[in-house]
Design goal:
Helices cover 27% and strands 14% of the residues. It is α+β, with helices and mostly antiparallel strands.
């Protein structure tokens, strides 16, 4: 498997009013799915509407995380499908840093706008 066209980062479905705000949910999911904590100044990026009709929200933050500490939470998955047999699998199988062009290949096309927006912001800062 190439690993291309995958979810770009930790994700969760958030119902309006379920959390103080979407950022709280994003920080919680990041901790659960990656096993690392991140803090600092979060910059809200423009929400992106997906082909499915769902809207994805994302934040940028400057951080240099030691990915050696990566550890995902796990969940039960019925495998093979409809077999009644459950196996325990990690929610994320790995975390890595990528150059922009590779990151764009690996992310879902509907989420490319997040990388492009951050790139534009960084270019305006220089």
């Amino acid at each position: 498997m190439s690993g291309n066209g995958c979810q770009g980062g930790p994700a969760d479905f958030v119902r309006i009013g379920q959390f103080k705000d979407h950022l709280d949910a994003a920080v919680r999911e990041f901790g659960e799915e990656v096993g690392l904590s991140v803090s600092g100044t979060f910059v809200a990026l423009r929400p992106l509407k997906q082909k499915s009709g769902k809207t994805v929200v994302c934040w940028a933050i400057e951080a240099d995380l030691d990915l050696a500490g990566f550890k995902s939470n796990e969940f039960d998955l019925e495998w093979p499908p409809r077999s009644g047999r459950l196996i325990r699998v990690p929610e994320c199988d790995r975390a890595a840093y990528f150059p922009t062009e590779i990151a764009l290949r690996k992310m879902l096309p509907g989420q490319h706008g997040f990388i492009e927006e951050v790139q534009g912001r960084l270019q305006r800062m220089t």
